[in-house]
From TrEMBL:
Belongs to the KAE1 / TsaD family. It catalyses: L-threonylcarbamoyladenylate + adenosine(37) in tRNA = N(6)-L-threonylcarbamoyladenosine(37) in tRNA + AMP + H(+). Homodimer. Residues 23-326 form the Gcp-like domain. One of its GO terms (biological process) is tRNA threonylcarbamoyladenosine modification. Its main location: mitochondrion. This is Glycoprotease 1. Required for the formation of a threonylcarbamoyl group on adenosine at position 37 (t(6)A37) in mitochondrial tRNAs that read codons beginning with adenine. Probably involved in the transfer of the threonylcarbamoyl moiety of threonylcarbamoyl-AMP (TC-AMP) to the N6 group of A37. Involved in mitochondrial genome maintenance. Keywords: Acyltransferase, Metal-binding, Mitochondrion, Transferase, Transit peptide, tRNA processing. The keyword Plastid does not apply. Its cofactor is a divalent metal cation. It comes from Jatropha curcas. It is found in: Mitochondrion.
Length: 371
């Protein structure tokens, strides 16, 4: 069993080939970081154009690196949501063209499910049920994964995701955004004093597992303004005093942003145990899970709660084709896939895209019959 995974839901064009036993034969990512830096965010039309320009090459490179041709594949897996529909469409079109030409089944993939399930590729011991904290540019999700395709959403963000907050704060602090903002804030935070500014922790009064980052972002913006930090002056040109003041803000923000994750995870573990007492793992995935401070702090939480922490390596935490191919393998093995599309599919064929697609059902604390 060999599956090609294609991912174009946001700003990265990615493809990978993975074998049924979890062996990664290739992994290719073409990122749009230069566009992000220039325009300060993902502009859907521009992102779509970039995906269209590189998709053929990215897929070809993935096949070449795996030393395979499309004829050798068992199926094609492709992200169909959630994400920007213009962008998703590029990947789905490519997947259907390939599948149509080579008579391959197609597996439509949920991007966030893929972020979670890739943990099962790196750790064969990870069985259902398990918990997952998915932290990325567009999502903050606490999930109880009961079985393949059977998820309970314990918490989500009521406004922004943590990755979005990292990216905005990187921009306001004048950091180098050539990669995404997260790693830049993490690096600068190491120079700062995390206790220097007492930002207040979000949603303290809400005894649930939801997240909010909009208020913390505002607190940080006000701190930046009151210290006269000018984002137009890049950090590389800042005076040492200016630099250390930016570092204090980065560190103080990071402490509270992650404290919010810790508090929510602790409660979610208690909730999850009421439904599935046998859980052993908390999986932490999505781009922000590559952050070392996040990993260290959450490791303490799970130890206290007698669980094990499982974070995929950074290249599998940020968007990648491997997670899509692997999730395709999981579903394919359960017989969940679509038949090969017709090779001569009409140009105006309407694809099954799911730009907004919740992962599982919501759990309301106290409702013991939550499925
Ligand atoms: P989603 O998965 O919600 O659709 P996405 O696919 O754009 O969003 P990912 O690629 O999973 O997001 O993650 C990107 C996010 O992760 C960005 O916001 C980026 O700043 C953040 N990120 C990456 N590395 C780090 C880090 N070391 N520290 C903090 N944040 C990070
Ligand atoms: Fe993602």
């Amino acid at each position: 069993l060999v599956i090609l995974g294609i991912e174009t839901s946001c700003d990265d064009t990615a493809a990978a080939v993975v074998k049924g036993n979890g062996e990664i034969l290739s992994q290719v990512v073409s990122s749009q970081a230069d566009l992000l830096e220039r325009y300060g965010g993902v502009a859907p039309k521009m992102a779509e154009e970039r995906h269209s320009q590189v998709i053929d090459q990215v897929v070809q490179d993935a096949l070449d690196q795996a030393n395979l041709t499309a004829r050798d594949l068992s199926a094609v897996a492709v992200t169909i949501g959630p994400g920007l529909s213009l962008c998703l469409c590029v990947g789905v079109q490519k997947a259907r063209k390939l599948a149509g030409s080579f008579n391959l089944p197609i597996v439509g993939i949920h991007h966030m499910e893929a972020h979670a399930l890739v943990a099962r590729l790196i750790e064969q011991e990870l069985q259902f049920p398990f918990m997952a904290l998915l932290i990325s540019g567009g999502h903050n999700l606490l999930i109880l994964a009961r079985d393949l395709g059977h998820y309970i959403q314990l918490g989500t963000t009521i406004d922004d995701a943590i990755g979005e907050a990292y990216d905005k704060i990187a921009k306001w602090l004048g950091l180098d955004m050539r990669r995404s903002g997260g790693p830049a804030v993490e690096a600068l935070a190491q120079e700062g004093d995390a206790e220097s500014i007492k930002f207040s922790s979000p949603m303290k009064q809400h005894k649930d597992c939801n997240f909010s980052y909009a208020g913390l972002k505002t607190q940080v913006r006000l701190a930046i303004e009151s210290r006269n930090i000018n984002a137009e002056i890049p950090i590389s040109s800042a005076t040492s005093q200016d630099r250390s003041s930016r570092a204090d803000i980065a560190a103080s923000f990071q402490r509270v942003a992650v404290l919010h994750l810790e508090e929510r995870c602790e409660r979610a573990i208690d909730w999850a145990r009421k439904i599935e007492p046998s859980i052993k793992y908390l999986v932490v995935s999505g781009g922000v899970a590559s952050n070392q401070y996040v990993r260290t702090r959450l490791d303490q939480v799970v130890k206290k709660k007698n669980l094990k922490l499982l974070c995929p390596p950074p290249s599998l935490c940020t968007d990648n084709g491997v997670m899509v191919a692997w999730t395709g393998i999981e579903h394919f093995c359960m017989g969940r896939f679509d038949p090969p599309p017709p090779a001569d599919e009409a140009e105006d064929f309407v694809y099954d895209l799911r730009p907004r697609w919740p992962l599982g059902v919501e759990y309301a604390e106290g409702r013991s019959n939550a499925r």
